[in-house]
Amino acid sequence: MTLSTSPDAVWLNVSPSFERFDHKLLGGLARHVEVTHWAYRQTPEEPSSLDIAVTLLHDYLKGHNRPVHLLGHGTGGLVGLLYARQNPHRVKSLTLLAVGVNPMLDWQAHYYAQLERLPCSRRQVLTQMVYSLFGHQARPLVPGWVNLLEQDLLHSVSPHSLLKRASLCPSSMAVPLLVCGGEDDFVVDPTQIQGWQPWLKAGDRIALCPGRHFFHAFYPQQVASQILSFWGTTESVLRLPQGLKTIP
Questions:
Q1: Domain containing 241: what range?
Q2: Alpha-carbon distance values, 14 to 54, 139, 170, 184 (Å)
Q3: Whole-angstrom Cα distance, residue 174 to residue 182?
């Protein structure tokens, strides 16, 4: 079945614990274009599989009557990248936030590497990850952030585990590409973002924004401006304020 109307853009989220960090950016984008939120939720009993997420995304997008802008942060962006490689004709552009030239590098890869290397408990390593991801935190707030990371370990489709760290070779994209990173991100540092440079074609962009790994949550206006400017070079889609729709 083909949908009679399609959104301008689809935000991809495969990390339910981190969904709260997306709201301000999506609200800013939704004032200019129609943005749909697509989410994949994995249960602890299911094997972690990026392939399943990509297949379900295809099941959703093949019902649209035109290509859409795909965008996502971290592993959500990785799913968009894998999909755009397989189905470039369905993707108007791809925007990656905190996705480096090694696209599978995420906070969990760093966590498992530290857990393996350091003589510390799981909880101690997660506490250190909180400070690395979010900066200095008041002590009473730290357990809440640790619990958030624990939930992501359970429910996201990160390709990493204590026994395996995955990688993916970079390549040029057939669709217009914008890569954004945080200037103080220790997970996907500016070197990882700039590493995309040899793979860019005419019209592709790299942008470094203030902030750490979740820079889009703390500097949503700056990130939205980069994205809207980029979209304006692919096709004029800006119009009167629209809404943000959610696809379960």
A1: 9-104+169-247
A2: 11, 29, 21, 23
A3: 25
Q: How deeply is 113 buried, as exposed, middle or buried, from its count of CB atoms within 10 A (0-12, 13-18, 19+)? A: middle
Give the pLDDT means over successive 10-residue stretches in the chain (248 positions).
70 95 97 94 73 94 93 97 96 98 94 88 94 94 96 82 69 95 97 97 96 97 96 59 41
Quickly list DSSP for 90-142: GEEEEEEES--SSTT--HHHHHHHHHHHSS--HHHHHHHHHHHHH-S--GGGH
Q: Where is the domain boundary, 90, 122, 155?
A: 155
Q: What is the DSSP letter of 47?
A: P
Q: Global pTM?
A: 0.89
List of residues 6+ apart from 90 with CB closer than 8 A: 61, 62, 64, 67, 68, 83
Same structural domain, 126 and 174: no
